[in-house]
Design a protein that fits this description.
Largest sheet: 5 strands, parallel
Strand content: 5-15%
Distance between the termini: 18 Å
Number of domains: 1
CATH superfamily: P-loop containing nucleotide triphosphate hydrolases
Number of strands: 5
Helix content: 40-55%
Length: 206
């Protein structure tokens, strides 16, 4: 058994099978995957209701600069004056930010989305992966999964990617989907979910 926790973060384009890759990876390693579950954990620790987290989950924001928030944020105390005075979207982000750090300290796991790679940027045992896929394949998957037209599926892919990109770019110092922001980028139009997991595990060995 590893003497330290192995953490895998998965960034993903909408419809790229990123969540499936994360699920398969977690299953093979016998560790937990955190996706929507992270919202429930963050809600518990912050005292904010879970519905608030769902409404603000990976949604872009246009309020004041994140650096200002970090300057006023004092050590993860959700009862401090700076935290109480913050806009709701910042409270949600910081509660998730703390939860991600706590989970990584506690156990090996896979964390999907939610700027986890940024939250754990100082963790040497964290492997950051981005899953993408060709637009044509994403459209077909979403159209089939949600039983909607391909045009609607394309609109949904574009909208969801834009939301995730805006959220990530706003709260981190990196660029969503840019290879330089991650350790490993995989295109699931070129490899299967199983092969993607093999690649991640092989990369971890090096």
């Amino acid at each position: 058994m590893a003497a330290y926790n192995e953490i895998y973060t998965i960034g993903r384009e909408f419809g790229s099978l990123g969540k499936k890759v994360g699920e398969e990876l977690a299953e093979r390693l016998g560790i937990k995957i955190y996706n929507k579950e992270l919202l429930a954990e963050a809600a518990k620790s912050s005292g904010l209701c879970e519905e608030i987290f769902e409404n603000h989950d990976e949604k872009p924001t246009n309020s004041f600069l994140y650096s200002l928030v970090m300057d006023t944020y004092s050590g993860g105390t959700f009862s401090s004056a700076p935290f109480l005075d913050m806009p709701l979207n910042h409270k949600v982000f910081l509660a998730q930010f703390d939860t991600i750090k706590q989970i990584a300290e506690k156990e090996s796991c896979v964390i999907v989305g939610r700027c986890a790679d940024y939250a754990l940027s100082d963790n040497p045992n964290c492997l950051n992966v981005f899953i993408r896929s060709d637009m044509e394949d994403r459209i077909k998957r979403i159209s089939k999964r949600l039983d909607i037209t391909e045009n609607k599926a394309k609109d949904m892919c574009i909208k969801k990617d834009k939301q995730r990109s805006s959220y990530y770019n706003y709260y981190t110092s990196k660029k969503w989907g840019d290879a330089r922001s991650y350790d490993l980028c995989i295109n699931t139009s070129k490899v299967s979910v199983d092969d993607a997991v093999d690649l991640i595990l092989k990369y971890r060995e090096n």
